[in-house]
Write a structure and sequence with these properties.
Number of domains: 2
Shape: globular
Order of helices and strands: HEHEHEHEHEHEHEHEHHEHH
Number of helices: 12
Helix content: 40-55%
Bound molecules: phosphoric acid mono(formamide)ester, norvaline
CATH superfamily of the largest domain: Aspartate/ornithine carbamoyltransferase
Radius of gyration: 19 Å
Number of strands: 9
Strand content: 5-15%
Length: 304
């Protein structure tokens, strides 16, 4: 059975630690000009149903750095379009390539693909989770502060794919996590309980009060209010989330040395004020760069 990474739930704390260590090491080597050929001639397929800049380019570049190559498959390969059964699609595609990165509208469709794939599937974003993003985010926090110990990440906004992956990733590595969003857009108790029950979990808070969530945080994070596929809810969400903008006033509740993070793409004037995302505490470009390093670490860890 191939080992898949559809969410961080499937990786143990030790395994996430290993991936981050490999990522940091590969980043360090790249900065010194070394591109180690750990996956010579490996072929990665990228099966994408939604747009992407960071995920696509960082995976394709990362695989090239590691000595392999990639194939970008858009909608015309027939996945999910009823052209052929998913069993046949998965078995055929996985007979050609060594690893498949999938960005899909529905998490269930990726689970279905994984059931029939003979090679590892990595989730490059679904409606439910975005594990590669959270790996890069944890790498960014660790790199900035030198350690994850004693850190608190506050997510202001929607209980979505990104915040869900961060909640799991933080709990797996002992980082305190708080999320603030309006009623009706929060995690359910079952999910919060599952995260709190992880043996490594620190404090896990869910609140409607953004100042409470940000209190003492060393990293303040936000994401769009309406994710891809929720465009029709944009106006309603903009109204509900308006009190949840990350701006300078909110950042004053955080730790003095707090950094600001956003998975990007960002909407200035909505979930984040320009003064914050373009200000001195912002690490969003370093964070986006770390997608490359974290995914190289994940590929090397998973495939060697
Ligand atoms: N953060 C992120 O996943 O960006 P893309 O949608 O551009 O891949
Ligand atoms: N929550 C966002 C993240 C984009 C990287 C979305 O799913 O559209």
């Amino acid at each position: 059975m191939a080992r898949h990474v559809l969410s961080l739930t499937e990786l143990s704390s030790d395994e996430i630690r290993q991936v981050l260590n490999v990522s940091a090491e590969l980043k360090h080597k790249l900065k010194r000009g070394t591109r180690e050929s750990l996956l010579p001639n490996y072929v990665m397929a990228l099966l994408f149903e939604k747009p992407s800049l960071r995920t696509r380019v960082s995976f394709e570049t990362g695989m090239r750095h590691l000595g392999g190559s990639s194939l970008f498959l858009g909608q015309d390969c027939g996945w999910g379009g009823g052209r052929e059964p998913v069993e046949d699609f998965a078995r055929v595609l996985s007979s050609y390539v060594d690893v498949i990165v999938v960005r899909a509208k529905s998490h269930a469709s990726v689970q279905e693909l994984a059931k029939h794939s003979g090679v590892p599937i990595i989730n490059g974003l679904t409606d439910w989770s975005h594990p590669c993003q959270a790996l890069a985010d944890l790498l960014t926090v660790e790199e900035h502060f030198g350690t994850l110990e004693g850190q608190k990440l506050a997510f202001i906004g929607d209980a979505n794919n990104v915040s869900r992956s961060l909640a799991i990733g933080c709990a797996k590595l002992g980082v305190d996590f708080a999320i603030a969003g309006p009623a009706g857009y929060q995690f359910d108790e079952a999910f919060l309980d599952s995260v709190r029950q992880l043996p490594t979990a620190g404090e896990i808070v869910s609140t409607t009060d953004p100042a409470e969530a940000v209190d003492g945080a060393t990293a303040v994070y936000t994401d769009v209010w309406a994710s891809m596929g929720q465009e029709a809810e944009q106006a309603e969400r903009a109204a509900r989330f308006a009190p949840y903008q990350v701006n300078a006033a909110l950042m004053r509740h955080a730790s003095d040395n707090a950094i600001f993070l956003h998975c990007l793409p960002a909407h200035r004037g909505e979930e984040v004020a320009a003064e914050v995302i373009d200000g001195g505490a912002s690490r969003v470009i370093e964070q986006a760069e770390n997608r490359l390093h974290a995914q190289k670490g994940l590929l090397a860890w998973l495939l060697t």
